[in-house]
Amino acid sequence: MNEQKLVWTIDATCGAVGIDARLEGTIWPLDMPGVKARFSTSPSPLLNLVGMASFVPDKVDEEIDRVIAQYRRENKAFSWLVGPTSTPGDLGARLVEHGLTLVEEERMDGMVLRNLKHRIEVNPRIRIAEVSPEDWRANAEMMAASYGFGMTPETVRSLADFHEALSDQAHVYLAYAEDRPDPIAFSGGVIDESGEVMVLGGAATAPEYRGRGVYSSMVAKRLDDARALGCSMAVVQAVKTTSAPICQQLGFEKVCEIDLYTWMPQ
């Protein structure tokens, strides 16, 4: 995969904004020229999402207003991802002028690991299991509490539905510690359409188990599975202040940046 395609893949799979999955009555793509957009019955800005904008410079303000109007009509908060494929270059500043807010704590590095045989040290006291979307639904409270930012149990259940709709492309995981029967962390992964890339999706660990190598162990498990499935590389959209430093230590290299802006109804 060449670098241009790699960067496009990282951008398109951030929040799965470039994946036109449709869940009847729950999540569906919006047909709006110039952007990829998704609408949900959920109020969560994690599920109502816009990205990959490609606007003509002299029409930018008009197009931004058109997108906002779609979500305002339904009184829905939404997030707008500004990544390497978004144009024009000052789109982020334009979004702020139109009332969106840059979420500093959710700024991301798009990263790639080109060698899936890279050895990652794991915590032997942590067990990572691939599970079903139904297991995510059953542990929605833990997942929402661990993740924070816009994540509610309802959002988790919708994400489980979304992964279920992707069928064999999607893989979902829970992590378990020796000292308790219930899961303490979760993570996901999606194989891109080419079959070459494992996209490491959202992951979070219960606060009391952080700092014990749980995240690294979940990365290692997903890389093992990716290799077994025939992938040649893995990518991740890692939050700069949390997972990005860990991923860098694990061998991932930064190739782009993605910012997240939110709009909230008045």
UniProtKB/TrEMBL annotation:
Entry-linked CDD domains: NAT_SF (cd04301)
Entries under Pfam families matching the protein: Acetyltransf_1
Superkingdom classification of source: Bacteria
GO molecular function, one term: acyltransferase activity, transferring groups other than amino-acyl groups
Limits of the N-acetyltransferase domain: 126-266
Keyword Nucleus among record annotations: no
Protein name (database record): GNAT family N-acetyltransferase
